[in-house]
């Protein structure tokens, strides 16, 4: 009954915002659409479909808001106007009762907060759709932040996700663009990322990995995780204090160099992607602070690592080739990389794809960030991908989303930032480490452990190999014998065929001679 009631509520909200007309407009013929609209003439639908969709998702609740946020990154699937509107979705959710937070902590950590901590603030300092954060102090004096998952999130999410799958299935069946947009696959992608975000142990592991990757960095701080106080529903980490990166006035008042911050942000992002293949995939301004503490002044602080992206060696090589080709304006190399990777069909015309990519990218060069939109360039590239049937990889969609966040940060900090000029030396240096002499030396170093084990055994291995060459192989002897026997059988068969053919020809000749008089 709860699912039925939830479905009724969803349909009512969709109907109230006129989203049903989006589906009606795809019915064949105009008569049905005109009749349908006349039945509900009292609805005022002068607002654009994108705005109505955004407002409907906001009213439907946190899960649908997150779905809309994810959809806003899929510019390969959505019209530009709708994608731009969905990108405005804000994840602002009222906090839940602090008593429930205390119950969660007690249940999942095995003791109430007053025993676990020297001090626990019941008033949350931040609240989002899936969790909220309280400040506390450990018994050793360390100040920490306690992240607590909202109660019964798994049940609520499971119910709404099931309904989303139903809608996606209906859309693929009755909407002419449904199959092309792969609605079920989109919901599945959202389902996976959301359940990953609900496991706070996974998020804690992401913090530890990123902190280890940047242990020697002077540009990024990652909070320490206290594993003795972590579970799937509760996570305790080092308390971080800083200025939100979106508050540029406060950053300037604190004496920070915004241009340096902008270039550092680009370097941090590229380091995560190309050096570590492990990147923070939710780098919107709300998740980035700037430290003003004397010891760490001006460093970025990374928060909310529920969503991370990972790339394999193939992805890194593909991306690096494309980026370097973009910087050199070698669009043919971009086209060939997409075809060689298998993401574009093998019969794709290199010349046509090269021309399409040039049309997308050429207008943005030699211009500061304020004079072009990287998001617009990505949107055009996704339109090109649809035209040439290029497959969009899920891990690269996360990367695209993060790059849009980086663009937004860059616009706030330094509108004159030349994104390409800042990134090009880093990427060329990375390429040298991957495929140049430095890369070869590094790989030898990585394999040194194996070499140290194999080299002492090398003389014995060579001696054994030489003995095997000199020693007759029973299998080889058996194979040679079988080959000889087969050759003998083949000769016998050949002789038999010749004999049978001769006999047949003789019989035919005798028959002809016996009946010769019939021809005269």
UniProtKB/TrEMBL annotation:
<dbReference type="GO" id="GO:0016301">
    <property type="term" value="F:kinase activity"/>
</dbReference>
<dbReference type="InterPro" id="IPR011009">
    <property type="entry name" value="Kinase-like_dom_sf"/>
</dbReference>
<dbReference type="InterPro" id="IPR045308">
    <property type="entry name" value="UbiB_bact"/>
</dbReference>
<dbReference type="InterPro" id="IPR004147">
    <property type="entry name" value="ABC1_dom"/>
</dbReference>
<dbReference type="InterPro" id="IPR010232">
    <property type="entry name" value="UbiB"/>
</dbReference>
<comment type="similarity">
    <text>Belongs to the protein kinase superfamily. ADCK protein kinase family.</text>
</comment>
<comment type="pathway">
    <text>Cofactor biosynthesis; ubiquinone biosynthesis [regulation].</text>
</comment>
<protein>
    <submittedName>
        <fullName>Ubiquinone biosynthesis regulatory protein kinase UbiB</fullName>
    </submittedName>
</protein>
<keyword id="KW-0812">Transmembrane</keyword>
<keyword id="KW-0997">Cell inner membrane</keyword>
<dbReference type="GO" id="GO:0005524">
    <property type="term" value="F:ATP binding"/>
</dbReference>
<keyword id="KW-1003">Cell membrane</keyword>
<keyword id="KW-0547">Nucleotide-binding</keyword>
<keyword id="KW-0472">Membrane</keyword>
<dbReference type="GO" id="GO:0006744">
    <property type="term" value="P:ubiquinone biosynthetic process"/>
</dbReference>
<keyword id="KW-0831">Ubiquinone biosynthesis</keyword>
<dbReference type="Pfam" id="PF03109">
    <property type="entry name" value="ABC1"/>
</dbReference>
<keyword id="KW-0830">Ubiquinone</keyword>
<keyword id="KW-0067">ATP-binding</keyword>
<keyword id="KW-0418">Kinase</keyword>
<keyword id="KW-1133">Transmembrane helix</keyword>
<keyword id="KW-0808">Transferase</keyword>
<dbReference type="InterPro" id="IPR050154">
    <property type="entry name" value="UbiB_kinase"/>
</dbReference>
């Amino acid at each position: 009954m709860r699912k039925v009631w939830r479905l009724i509520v969803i349909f009512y909200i969709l109907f109230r915002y006129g989203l049903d007309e989006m589906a009606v407009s795809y019915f064949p013929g105009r008569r049905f659409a005109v009749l349908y609209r006349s039945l509900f003439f009292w609805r005022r639908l002068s607002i654009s479909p994108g705005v109505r969709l955004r407002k409907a998702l906001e009213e439907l609740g946190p899960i649908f808001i997150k779905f809309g946020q994810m959809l806003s990154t899929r510019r390969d699937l959505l019209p530009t106007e709708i994608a731009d509107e969905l990108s405005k979705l804000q994840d602002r959710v009222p906090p839940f009762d602090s008593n429930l937070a205390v119950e969660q902590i007690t249940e999942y950590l095995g003791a109430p907060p007053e025993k676990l901590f020297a001090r626990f603030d019941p008033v949350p300092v931040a609240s989002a759709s899936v969790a909220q954060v309280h400040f506390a102090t450990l018994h050793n004096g360390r100040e920490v932040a306690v992240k607590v998952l909202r109660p019964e999130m798994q049940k609520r999410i499971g119910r709404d996700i099931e309904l989303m799958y139903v809608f996606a299935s209906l859309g693929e069946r009755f909407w002419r663009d449904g199959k092309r947009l792969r609605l079920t696959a989109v919901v599945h992608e959202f389902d996976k990322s959301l359940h990953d975000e609900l496991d706070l142990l996974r998020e804690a592991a992401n913090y530890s990995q990123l902190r280890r990757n940047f242990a020697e960095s002077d540009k990024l701080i990652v909070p320490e995780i206290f594993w003795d106080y972590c579970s799937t529903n509760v996570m305790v980490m080092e308390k971080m204090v800083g200025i939100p990166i979106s508050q540029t006035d406060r950053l300037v008042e604190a004496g920070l160099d915004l241009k340096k911050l902008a270039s550092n942000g680009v370097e941090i992002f590229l380091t995560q992607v190309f050096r570590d293949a492990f990147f923070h995939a939710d780098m919107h301004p709300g998740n980035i602070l700037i430290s003003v503490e004397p010891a760490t002044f001006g460093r970025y602080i990374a928060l909310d690592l529920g969503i991370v992206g990972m790339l394999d060696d193939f992805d890194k090589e593909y991306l690096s080739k494309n980026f370097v080709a973009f910087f050199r304006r070698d669009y043919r190399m971009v086209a060939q990389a997409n075809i060689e990777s298998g993401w574009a069909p093998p019969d794709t015309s290199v010349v046509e794809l090269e021309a399409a990519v040039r049309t997308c990218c050429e207008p943005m060069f030699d211009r500061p960030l304020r004079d072009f939109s990287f998001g617009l360039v990505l949107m055009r590239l996704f339109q090109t991908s649809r035209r040439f049937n290029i497959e969009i990889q899920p891990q690269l969609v996360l990367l695209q989303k993060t790059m849009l966040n980086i663009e937004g940060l860059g616009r706030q900090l330094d509108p004159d930032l030349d994104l390409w000029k800042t990134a090009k030396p880093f990427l060329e240096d990375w390429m040298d480490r991957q495929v140049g002499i430095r890369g070869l030396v590094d790989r030898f170093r990585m394999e040194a452990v194996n070499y140290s084990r194999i080299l002492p055994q090398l003389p014995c291995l060579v001696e054994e190999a030489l003995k095997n060459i000199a020693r007759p192989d029973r299998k080889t002897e058996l194979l040679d014998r079988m080959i000889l026997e087969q050759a003998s059988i083949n000769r016998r068969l050949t002789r038999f065929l010749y004999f049978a053919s001769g006999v047949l020809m003789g019989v035919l000749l005798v028959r002809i001679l016996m009946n010769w008089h019939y021809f005269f």
